[in-house]
Every structure is written in structure tokens, then in C-alpha cells.
Amino acid sequence: MTTYAFETITPEQALNIRSGDYLTFARGPASQVSVAYVPESLPLPARIEVTFQGRTVAFGEELSDLSVRGGVDVADHSRLKIGGEGREVLTGFDGSDGLYGGAGDDTLNGFDGGDLLHGNSGNDLLNGGAGANTIYGGKGDDVINVSAFRETAGSWAHGNQGDDEIVGGAGNDTLYGGQGNDFIGGKEGDDYISGDLGDDEIHAGAGNDTVSGGAGNDTLYSNDGSDLLRGGDGHDMLVIYGPGASLAEGGDGNDTLVSASAEQSVLYGGAGRDQFEFASSAAPGQGFDDLIVDWESGDRLHFAEVSAYSILPRSYSEFVTDSYEHALAIANEHISAAGAHYVAAQVGDDVLVFADTDGNPADGADVAIMLVGRALADIGLENFI
Q: Which Pfam families is this protein grouped with (predicted)?
């Protein structure tokens, strides 16, 4: 058993400290020790960095079982725990804890306080606690529950490598999938969620969320609240549903944007040949349902109900008028009297597209979509599938 003074310990002594040794700190008013575990990053080995009164010293992993005496405060009730080669369960306490898994399939449980959880290798389960936590999945296919036990104040989580599952908490969380094909779900709060790399599935939560697919062919879903969906690179699917008015941006690639909300949505296809699908609508008499802001002549429109009931070849008509009300009245005539399935009307600088989706021509149009800043030359029957 050896006693070392932090102020004079050498780097060689620090790396060779062993369980049972003592490390002393000079007393002082409001003295504070900061302890952080740094995982292996070749050529540097895993280490524990201790900072006190402006000095930082790197110790070996043997320092992980800390006990405190006297006037030195290690972040009230905080703990530092490091897993080994096997499967372990590491649990924090009331303070701001640092929990680091080892090579096995570990379970890390935060508690009160703003905890740092790092799974490292293995397929780990990481459960945050009540504070604003920072969670890294590490290598392997990890499951991260930002708030497994209690509500949180807003946490940060990153799946890193592997195909991870990440579920947010009640706060305003920031969630990243990292590499791999990840599943990410928001909950309460206004969250920022990014799939990052891989083909990810992401569900917004109850708040006003921002969801980004990143690289890969991603599937994004809105939820309650007014959400922003951004597909990013790849051929993405963006699905808007729930009671809130949302905005969807496909980004690069041939994207599919699905509007299944009764609220008005704003749709940007982005680069590529995009498909816009409509699975829900308000009565056209209350105004148009959704806006397509960057419609291109190579894009496509799909109304599932029309394809389901239509046996005869579908028909299309178009005209020019001066108001939405006139456009709706004329479209209803084209549908009820002439049997048109789709009707396009030029109104000012925009095109309104009406569709009969319920198979009952007598009640006229069931859906109205606006193509912002477009002309009748930009759309025809070939754009409907």
C-alpha cells in the first residue's frame, strides 16, 4: 500500500497505481476533483483523467474504485464505474456518475444526476436516469433508453457503431444513431433526432421535433406536434401523420413523401424524381389540404383510394380560373358530370389538383393539393400513378 500526493505524483506512478493505494489532495476552500474515463483510442490506452486545481493526471484503470475522505468533493455522491471483460451490471447513484462498460454485453443504469454512460464493446443496454444525461452506445448493437427509470431534463445520446435502438425521454433530447441501421424514437419534449449513417427508421415524439435521416435510405415518421422531417441523402420515405401541421423535405435522392394527417402539410421533394402520396384529407370546401413547394414535371402523385377502386382508365382534365372557390366548383362539375378522376386548375401562379378518392363522383372532389409556383404545362395524367 502506497500513498501518493496528487500535486507531486509522476506520470509513471499514476499509471501504476493499484487498488489499496492512497491518493491525497491538498486541502482548500471549495476544492473540486474532476474524474473522467477516456476509452482506448490507439495508440493511447484506456485511462482515467483526474483534474484538480488546474492539473490533469492520467491514471490506469485501477483507479476506478474511488473512495473520498476529508474536504475534497467529487461531485456530490458521484461514482465512476468501469466494466471488465465479462457481462456486468453497473449502477449509478444520486450524483453525476460515470459508467463505462467493458468488452462484454453490459447493463448500465444511471440514476439521479446528469450521468455519463458509455457502453464501449459488446451489445449493451444503457438506461439513463433523472438528470440531463450523456450516453454513448459504443461498438455493438446497443439499446439506449434515455429515461428508463424517471423523467429527464433533456439528454444527449449517440448510438455510435452497430445497429442500435435509441428511445428518448420527457425532455428536449438530442439523439444520434451513428453508424449502422438504427431505430430511434422520440417521446415528450422538442427533440432533435438524426439517423446519421445507415438506413434508419426514426419516429418523432409528442413535441415539436426536428428529424433528419442523414445518409442512407431512411424512413421518417412525424407524430403529435408540428414536426420537421428532413430525409437527407438517399432514397427516403417521409410519413406525416398525427394532429400537428408538419413540414417534410426529401433532400437528395428519389424520395417518397406521404401525407396522412388531417392538418395542412408543406412538402419539399428536393433533388431527384419524387413521389407524393396522400392518405388523408380535409373537406376541399375548407381549403386545399397540402402544399408541394418544389414540384417538378418528373415527380408523381399517388392517391391510394383512386388506384383501389378505379377499374376503367383514369381520366384527367384541366382549366384556368381566378380563385380557389371557382376552381373547386368547376372541378366538382368535371368529376360529377364527366367522371374525371383528376382535375388540375391554374389559379394565378399556382396549380390546384383535385381528386375523387372515394369512388363516388356525385360528391365531387375529395382532396385538393396546391403545386406552388407551377403551371398546367408541369402536370398531366402521366404524373398520376
A: HemolysinCabind
